[in-house]
Amino acid sequence: MTTRAPQSLRIRLELFVLPPCWDGNLRARRLLVPLDGPPDLVARRALGRRRPLWVHSTSWRCTPTGIVLTYLALLARAPADIGTAIEISTADLHSQGQQDPRNPCTARCRPADVLRHGLRHLASLCRRPKETPCLARLPMALRERLAKLDQPVHPPR
Q1: Quick one: residue 24, left, alpha or beta (phi over 0 = left, psi -120 to 50 = alpha)?
Q2: Which residues contact 59 (CB under 8 A, 6 or more apart)?
Q3: What contacts 148, CB < 8 A, 6 or more positions away?
Q4: Could you give the 3-state DSSP secondary structure of residue 61?
Q5: Alpha-carbon span 66 to 11, nearest angstrom
Q6: pLDDT value at 155 more than 50
């Protein structure tokens, strides 16, 4: 049995806009816009006049209504007036979120889960700066903090 894609499959871009630094909980903004052009251009256009330090595609997923491409954007100043607010606690930043590795994108895929996945992706890149030279544009303190995001809060004994 084959699964057929809906005739009116929508492709949307989900953009998580991150502040340049944070203490404690991460307060980001989330936008969901139609993909009406090249994804990188759509992501930058969604930011308006805000100049990103860095924009990166982190994942995609299939939903009942279509495909969602996810991007992270780091801004020079904390965003406060775009999208919807999303907050993740420090403990939740370090949790895995995904309960079943055989089923990575369940129907209950929350925005916080998607953001956490994107941050782990970014953390992985920050731990390999020679392979990702564009990250040199980010402040060193931010790169170091990001590189530790997917590390356990308390190392196993």
Answers
A1: left
A2: 69, 70, 114, 117, 118, 121
A3: 123
A4: strand
A5: 6
A6: no
Dihedral in degrees, nearest 10, Cα atoms 31, 33, 36, 37: 10
Which residues contact residue 120 at a Cβ distance below 8 angstroms, ignoring those fewer than 6 apart? 149, 150
Q: Is 7 helix (H, G, I), strand (E, B) or coil?
A: coil
What would the two tokens of residue 96 be?
Answer: 């895995």
**Residue 101: pLDDT above 50?**
yes
The Cα 150–Cα 117 span in angstroms is 9
Using CA atoms, how far apart are residues 64 and 79, in angstroms rounded to an integer? 30
Cα separation, 81 vs 98, whole angstroms = 30
Which residues are bridge partners to 17 per DSSP? 29, 73
**Residue 96 — pLDDT band, cuts 50, 70, 90?**
low
Half-sphere exposure of 118 (CA within 13 A, CB side): 27
Beta bridge partners of 84: 30
Three-state DSSP class for 73? strand
**Cβ-contact 143, 74 below 8 angstroms:** no
Instruction: State the alpha helices, DSSP H only, in 4-152.
Output: 39-46, 90-94, 111-126, 140-147
